[in-house]
Amino acid sequence: MRQIHVSEIKEAIVDLILSASYDIPPEIEKAVVQGIDAEISDAGRSVLQQIAESYQIARAERIAICQDTGMAVFFIEIGQDVHITGGDFETAVNDAVRQAYREGYLRKSVVAEPMFHRVNTGDNTPAVIHLRIVPGEQIRILVTPKGFGSENMSRIKMFPPAAGVEGLKRFVVDTVREAGPNPCPPVIVGVGVGGTFEQAAEVAKRMTARPVGSHNADPRYAALEDELLFEINRTGIGPAGIGGAITALAVNVDFRPTHIAGMPVAVNMCCHCARHAETTI
Amino acid sequence: MIIRKIQLPLTQEQARTLRAGETVCLTGAIYTDRDAAHKRLIELLDQGKDLPIDIKDQVIYYVGPAPASPGHAVGSAGPTTSYRMDAYAPRLIELGLSGMIGKGKRDQSVIDAMKKYGAVYFGAVGGAAALISRSIIKSEVVCYEDLGSEAIHRFEIRDFPVVVLIDSEGNNLYETGPAACRALLQSEKGE
Ligand code: SF4
Questions:
Q1: Ligand 1, residues B81, B83, B84, B125: which to mutate, most atoms within 8 A of Cβ?
Q2: Rounded to whole angstroms, what are the CA distances from A196 to A151, A264, A265, B63, B141?
Q3: Strand A263-270 relative to strand A277-280: parallel, antiparallel, unpaired?
């Protein structure tokens, strides 16, 4: 049994949020820079240049990559041989969010109640926490701050099994097409297939943080990712939606076992600012 | 690329001379305004009251900036998605608002008001927020301070780069730009 004090967890998460908010993941920056050469439209190229320059400024000056520093979404795996001491775990996560968003000059974008009285909580809490208990005595933490320009363009649909690959493809490409300029293209598209209603959505969210350029280990899904990327980049939407060949940087798909009667498909749209950072304690 | 420089304020007559697809650099003062503050402005109008700002010939930037860190006039400040302000924008255009800066599609009711009164919709690059903040040299809260980032700010901007997305004749770069590229891509790689 390994003891981990909540203060250690809190410190690690503060660092993680700051790094995610200021430092664009290198593989995204690389894809944007490569996109400048590959782009067919002058306007699209200019947009990608501005984005690449903005990434550099954010990193050098330690300012937010995007003003929408998002809701703080966590995927956390806790080893079952860990004993957390000194306080409760969720409070530690939220304390870290509060501290990082205040000290890091990040925007507070959370309202306490969504419909009647939308009052800002003032500290960007509460965080959204997805938790798993795994073997071992470590804690693995992935944070992926999520902006809502792209979140609002996400969709989920409960397909019948007969919809098959073609049904999924049409749904994903249509979702990107209808979103058009709104989610700040070039986008990263996270797709979750199977599971239940909420599991498909969670997988899709997890996929927005899978590195650009990586592929699903299952060759059928890897091929599907390439086909979807090709189709999306033929829509002409382009960077910032004003026309071009680079509409998406990646389409990341993963699946879960599902019911004999269903094929849920969730599409979580993410902007090029697909911020994420990971650490192991 | 030809870049047209514009000194604000922008009259509706000047707005009518801008064409979709043009790259423009704006210098002068603009107001920030997004969901919550728009709602308050429209509530005032509904009650027959005056607005806290005179929006005639003004440009509104749809943005909720990040807080400024020491040594910066403002935090990162890229555009937010404009359609959320579509329900409110025609009323403000009618009152003389000549420009909006944002990102994303607009409702036909907004475009109709732009055509009728002479207003233009500019786009800044979503997610290039750190770069954009360099063109903002001063920021002050004008009203609704309780809304935090959503308060109405007055920004002083210098050579703030935007593209005309939709002009006062209804020409829409979001339609023409992608359509031209789609034709090219599908003939090239269509095999
Ligand atoms: S969609 Fe992403 S890049 Fe665009 S404003 Fe929101 S967080 Fe920023």
A1: B81
A2: 20, 7, 9, 36, 46
A3: unpaired
**Residues of chain B found within 8 Å of residue A181, distances taken between Cβ atoms:** 103-105, 123, 126, 174
pLDDT digits 0-9 by tens, A204-232: 999 999 999 999 999 999 999 999 999 99
Residues of B whose CB is below 8 A from A47: 125, 128
Closest CA to A229 of A189, A265, A202: A189
- Would the CB of A271 count as within 6 Å of ligand 1? yes
Among candidate residues B122, B116, B97, the one with its CA nearest the CA of residue B19: B122
Look at ligand 1, atom 2, and give the residue with the nearest C-alpha: A271
> Cα(A67) to centroid of ligand 1, in Å?
8
At B144, give phi and psi (nearest 5°). Answer: 65, 45
Active site residue B38: yes
Quick check: A187 and A147 in contact, CB under 8 A? no
pLDDT band of residue B2 (cuts 50, 70, 90) is confident
**What ipTM was assigned to the predicted interfaces of this complex?**
0.94
Here the tokens at position B108 are 């036909």
Catalytically annotated residue among B15, B18, B31, B38: B38
With 70 as the cut, is the pLDDT of residue A238 above it? yes
Q: Token digits for B39?
A: 């709602």
Distances in Å between the Cα of B80 and the Cα atoms of A30, B33, B129 are 25, 10, 10
Inter-residue contact A24 to A65 (CB < 8 Å): yes
Question: What fold, for B3-189?
Answer: fumarase (3.20.130)
CATH, range A149-274: 3.30.1330
Average pLDDT, chain B: 94
